[in-house]
Amino acid sequence: MPDKITPGPGKYIDPLVDFAFKKIFGSEPNKDLLIAFLNEVFRGRKHIIDLVYDKNEHHGDIKEEGAAIFDLLCTGDDGEKFLIEVQRGRQGYFKERSLFYTSRLISDQAPKGRRTEWAYKLSGVYLVALLEDFTLQTEKSTEYLHHICLCNIETGEVFYDKLGYTYIELRKFVKTEGDLETDLDKWLYVLKNMSHMDKIPAYLRKPIFDKLFNIAEYTNLTKEEKTMYDSSLKYKWDNKNVLDYALKEGFEKGIEKGIEKGIEKGIEKGKLEEAKEIAREMKKDGLPIAQISKFTKLSIEEIEKL
Predict the structure, then answer these.
(1) Residue 165's closest CA among 87, 61, 271, 109?
(2) Which member of 4, 153, 225, 228 has the lowest number of beta carbons within 10 Å of its beta carbon?
(3) Domain ranges, ordered by start, for the chain
(4) What sign has the CA pseudo-torsion 106, 15, 167, 271?
(5) Cβ distance 150 to 111 under 8 Å?
(6) CA dist., res. 135 & res. 201, Å (int)
(7) What is the pLDDT of residues 93-105, one digit of tens each?
């Protein structure tokens, strides 16, 4: 197996690493960043004024159904649900998983227990997925932004506008600094390249981007946050080395289908294993179990077993 690539942190944290994404976009003091980004994604089709963060774990109606773990789940000022996901590697049945997650958020709106007057009045549900290292089986297309909705297949007319899926294929976003035209271009360029920058570029000198770069500066993290980010970054690169090696070996031996299946199963468990790895590092540093639980979302029982 090749040597592991374990680069150290740069001046700015990588926004696409799990911890960093939630640090930047997933806390109440920083929700203006998420609102600004989502408003650019929706390009005037929606205008979000405020967001409330919801729990990122959604339990099914029956015990056997298990829980869905979201990266970020928010409720808009009109009661709409926004599910924001970062997907780093290819995953089997990713489209189906998107449908399953949003379906849960729809069915959860039904009154529980005693029947009440409801009449199926639903709030909107929207998924925004940032795809880092894979595409949606549209390799020939250069389009990186996909807005999906229910429509009439014959006329293209929108049938229902309160359920939407936005997929952003960052691998296909290849614009350079000179190509950036819209604020969405700037957001996507920053998400993809911030960890390699050593200062905020002049063309990003707006209050919202000033705040983004200030939050993302590695030296501004607390000791606990540095531990979590370093572990999260190490996990990302270790995982990439393993997947790259598995694919290389599989293709050379002509067993790529089996290798890809194994990779898909591994990615399914990735977020949980990443959280456990971060928790182990925090335990080594002597941080309180309750604080580790708060940061990693693992239960105290799970952490004590590590």
Answers:
(1) 87
(2) 153
(3) 1-220, 221-306
(4) negative
(5) no
(6) 29
(7) 788 989 998 999 9
